[in-house]
Amino acid sequence: MTEDVYHRLAHTLHSIPNGFPPTESGVELRLLAKIFAPEEAALASVMRLTWEPADEIAARAGVDAKAAYRTLKTMARKGQIYAGRKDRQLKFRLMPFAVGIYEEQLPRIDKEFAMLFEQYYQEAQGAFNRYEPALHRVIPVEEAVPAGIEIYPYERATELVEKAKAWGVRDCLCRIQQKLVGKGCDHPLEACLVLAPVEGVFVHSEVTRAITKQDAHRILKEAEESGLVHSPGNYQDGNFYI
Fold first, then answer.
1. pLDDT for res 142
2. Is the pLDDT of residue 152 over 50?
3. Which of 115, 176, 202, 225 is deepest in the core (most CB within 10 A)?
4. Pair (65, 93) in one structural domain
């Protein structure tokens, strides 16, 4: 029964555009079990990408609405789902595995998690790199663009930083994960920028360190000087990370 709930969650995550492909070994189920308790997986497996109140999610899961509400709030704090105030009430929606659940586990990653993810990534053959359109795109370093090539505002890292009203930075989860499995690189660890259209949203975050706009521009420059590339989400509007 417990394994069934992780099968259902894996199927749900694979049914959305970001994907979560199965493997022959079933390592993805062990990875989900590392992140979700069974009752959490049961709720997430019936969630959708659209905002919903807890009672609707609970009805599909066949559980008590008040208990589901408490569990969903805990899940949101643990970076398993999204939560937000919509129509004057707290609503919830499904979070993709990547970009989403995986990145939000930064405060909780350990060697076991890193090894499970490495096995999953290898067996799924870089699963998240095989979908079209791609989840990420690379945008050029503005100082190195050949003359005559037009760079749109959404392709300028500095423009994304300027448009934001709140700025944060995180340690690179991929570098942490690789070091935990005995690999890794020497590039700067604190290099993942997070952006928001609302002031002060990162002040109390356990995942993101709130920074100033000037700090964000400095981190962009340091990343360029270190030989890193800027890679936001593959969409024109609403980019929230680089």
1. 54
2. no
3. 202
4. yes
Q: Are residues 26 and 104 in the same domain?
A: yes
Q: Which of 123, 161, 126, 120 is nearest to 142 (CA)?
A: 161
**Is position 242 within any domain?**
no
Distance CA 222, CA 233 (A): 20
**88 assigned to some structural domain:** yes
Pairwise CA distance, residues 159 & 57, whole Å: 38
Distance CA 175, CA 183 (A): 9
- In the chain the first and final C-alpha atoms are separated, in Å, by 40
* 3-class state of residue 168 by DSSP: strand
Among the residue ranges 10-19, 174-183, 224-233, the one predicted with the least confidence is: 224-233
Please state, in angstroms and as integers, the Cα–Cα distance from residue 168 to each residue in 19, 71, 191, following that order.
27, 27, 10
Q: Is residue 238 part of a domain?
A: no
Instruction: Look up the domain containing 102 and give its range.
Output: 2-123
pTM for this entry:
0.83
Reported as a single tens digit per residue, the pLDDT across 101-112 is 999 999 999 999
Q: Kindly state whether residues 152 and 71 are assigned to the same domain.
A: no
Residue 79: pLDDT over 60: yes
Q: In terms of domains, do 113 and 140 share one?
A: no
